[in-house]
Amino acid sequence: MSNRTSIPRVRALVAGAAAGLLLACAAPATAAQADGEPASDGLIPTLPEPTGRHTVGVTELHLVQQGRPDPWLPDRDRELMVGIWYPAKADREARPAPYMPEGTAEILGAEFTATLGLDPEAIDYGAITSAGLSGAPADTRSGPRPVVLFSPGGGVSRTLGTALVQELASHGYVVVTVDHTGEAPVQFPGGRVETSRLDDMPEDNPYLAMTDARVDDVRFVLDQLEEIASGDNPDAQGRALPRGLARVLDLSRIGAFGHSAGGATSIHAMAEDDRIDAAVDMDGSVVLGRNEAEREAFRERFPASTEGVTRPFMFMGAAQEEIPEEGGEPVVHPNTHVTFEDWGRLWENSPGWKRDLNFPEARHFTFTDHLLFLPRIQSELGLPPEVVASVIGPLPDPGRAYASQHTYLRAFFDLHLRGLARPVLDGESPHHPDVRFVP
Questions:
Q1: 133 or 106: whose pLDDT is higher?
Q2: CATH code of the domain in which 70 resides
Q3: pLDDT tens digits, one per residue of 322-340
Q4: Chain segment 69-96, per-residue pLDDT in tens
Q5: 174-179 and 145-151 strand pairing
Q6: What phi, psi does 98 have (nearest 5°)?
Q7: Are 382 and 10 in contact (CB under 8 A)?
Q8: DSSP 3-state assignment of 189?
Q9: Which class for 262: exposed (0-12), middle (13-18), buried (19 or more C-beta within 10 A)?
Q10: Structural domain boundaries, residue 215
Q11: Which of 78, 88, 248, 392 would bridge 68 by S-S if both were Cys, CB 3.0 to 4.6 A apart?
């Protein structure tokens, strides 16, 4: 990665902490509404309905890795909250799960409205729900399903990837989402919320410490999925798993994807764990550090960044604006393996299947649910267009860009986890005018 581009990209990773707060415009049901009190008259952001034929179920697990110290609180064992989204049977008793747990939403929602100068009641966080039916029985009629792991950006809640996650589940995938505790607020059973501790990152190479913890998290989650598939229940509270969940986990077909730091996590976890067959990196640098010494230490710990990988991967990049040192109008640079040294090294040294897709009008958070929420907030609450453009880019049609995202993402996993031919991956398409293939 050149000096010109490395600073903004590294900032973008941990700036996810602030941006996650700034943009957490979709928050979940509040206690007041759950108790039957009237909802506010605020705006209710919504996600598009998944396009697949399957009903979507969702459950949460509280996982504790005994004997592994938490990187932020070394006197505690590492604990995680994960979501499992899966093809489900229709269940009249199952209710749509909230987009985000109440305690998490309270923190993120307050930060969002304050940062944008909105009244706290301007958005009805309590009315936002997902397409996932909480605890619905798994649909076992088609046998075991491919499993895909999702890792969010640095300092960002796992819920910010819900649209893509439930879309994949509606097409027959089991998708497991991971909150990397200590980065974004995470609510645990009983209402306890662990807040962000990014300010307490180790002074000595914090990006390396964060990525190391993330990769370990992913590998631990895979271990726990094996426990579920064998008939055990790893939930720390012993809460019941959805009926049939163990029977829909095909752990011989596993993929991973993520945004920003989550994209890097997916690539490096695949390089270190043979259980992961294919990975997608959405706009995430694969080498991080504040200076060359830290970046070199990162490369030594995660050699795939320079030596490449042998399994299939795909980059999905946005673009970023750089203000010239001499001043003037910002210059827009696409995020591709041609323009970024770290992506370029990985690309050139990876002999297997690979693709690099660029969305020239996108920005870093286009690959999150912000793409779907912010345009409506802009139109109904008067959010300045330049604020929206700085986050998701000057896209002519955000809905079309989202459709392209989930089309290419699903096609990638269809090809590499299911062995299904997907010609859309062969080159540019008039049906996806926002996407460029980078050779």
A1: 133
A2: 3.40.50.1820
A3: 888 777 788 899 999 999 9
A4: 999 999 999 999 999 999 999 998 999 9
A5: parallel
A6: -65, 155
A7: no
A8: coil
A9: buried
A10: 3-437
A11: 78
